[in-house]
């Protein structure tokens, strides 16, 4: 779940530089993460920016379904009226991208082209997260 | 000046062009077609945090963001 970079870092504890040295892949560094976060902030609504600054996550509304989704570090949760997770989605831009870019891509996808996005995503039922 | 922003592993790469420069506009359109043909989605901010998908090249668009093709995780 989330971007490959986040997953590899979490699973191995290796730094992006170490992973890049091992794999030869070009991975986002700290400057890339900062740049991506700055770009994301430019594209958020005032309310989304407030949420992001407060909790590191923000909500979007699907353009086709009207569902609320919470985006946090690559994780996408569909929410009910009380804010509880109904199910989660797993999709991201293909390749190695900083978390800010991943979240921005997910935001644009759900707000502008939700049905097409759902066609490529993997669905994760709520029970996997303990409710 | 108009800007095309392409997401990549550095965060993003930016290409600016003068809409009054025909050669620069042609290059920008070529870049638009190449990226969208490769699966990138072009998006434009329309208001305060709102965005729309850009389906065709518009030399007057102030800023267009190119997002890589999405895949299931």
**Beta-strand proportion of chain A:** 15-25%
Main beta sheet of chain B: 5 strands, mixed
Give the topology string of chain B: H per helix, E per strand.
EEHEEEE
What are the low-pLDDT stretches of chain B, counting only 5+ consecutive residues below 50? none
Instruction: Please compute the radius of gyration of chain B using only Cα atoms.
Output: 12 Å
Spatial sequence of strands, sheet with the most strands of chain B: 2-1-5-3-4
Outline type of chain A: globular
**Helical/strand content category of chain A:** alpha+beta
Low-confidence stretches of chain A: none
Oligomer: heterodimer
Largest interface: A-B, 42 and 24 residues
Major sheet summary line of chain A: 5 strands, antiparallel
Mean pLDDT of chain A equals 85
What series of H and E elements makes up the topology of chain A?
HHHHEEEEHHE
Total DSSP helices of chain B: 1
Architecture blueprint of SSEs:
The complex is a heterodimer of chains A (131) and B (73).
Chain A: H1 4-12, H2 16-23, H3 30-43, H4 46-55, E1 58-61, E2 68-72, E3 75-79, E4 85-93, H5 99-112, H6 114-118, E5 122-125
Antiparallel strand pairs in A: 1-2, 2-3, 3-4, 4-5
Chain B: E1 2-8, E2 11-17, H1 22-37, E3 41-45, E4 51-53, E5 63-67, E6 70-72
Parallel strand pairs in B: 1-5
Antiparallel strand pairs in B: 1-2, 3-4, 3-5
Structure description:
- Chain A has 131 residues and is an alpha+beta fold.
- Helices cover 46% and strands 21% of the residues of chain A.
- The longest helix of chain A has 14 residues.
- In chain A, 34% of the residues are buried.
- Chain B has 73 residues and is an alpha+beta fold.
- Chain B is built from 1 helix and 6 strands, in the order ββαββββ.
- Chain B has a 5-stranded mixed beta sheet, with helices on one face.
- The N and C termini of chain B lie far apart (37 Å).
- Chains A and B meet through helix 3, helix 4, strand 4 and helix 5 of A and strand 1, strand 3, strand 4 and strand 6 of B.
């Amino acid at each position: 779940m989330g971007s490959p970079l986040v997953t590899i870092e979490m699973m191995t504890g290796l730094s992006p530089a170490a992973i890049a040295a091992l794999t030869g892949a070009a991975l986002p560094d700290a400057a890339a993460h900062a740049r991506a976060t700055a770009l994301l902030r430019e594209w958020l609504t005032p309310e989304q920016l407030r949420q992001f600054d407060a909790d590191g996550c923000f909500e979007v509304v699907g353009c086709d379904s009207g569902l609320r989704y919470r985006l946090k570090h690559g994780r996408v949760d569909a929410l009910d009226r009380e804010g509880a997770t109904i199910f989660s989605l797993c999709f991201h831009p293909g390749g190695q991208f900083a978390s800010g870019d991943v979240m921005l891509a997910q935001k644009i996808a759900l707000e502008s082209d939700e049905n097409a996005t759902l066609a490529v995503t993997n669905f994760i039922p709520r029970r996997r997260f303990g409710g | 000046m108009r800007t095309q922003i392409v997401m990549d592993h550095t965060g993003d790469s930016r290409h600016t062009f003068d809409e009054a420069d025909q050669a620069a506009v042609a290059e920008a359109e070529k870049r638009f077609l190449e990226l969208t043909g490769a699966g990138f989605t072009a998006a434009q901010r329309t208001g305060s945090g709102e965005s729309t998908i850009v389906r065709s090249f518009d030399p007057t668009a102030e800023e267009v963001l190119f997002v890589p093709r999405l895949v299931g995780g």
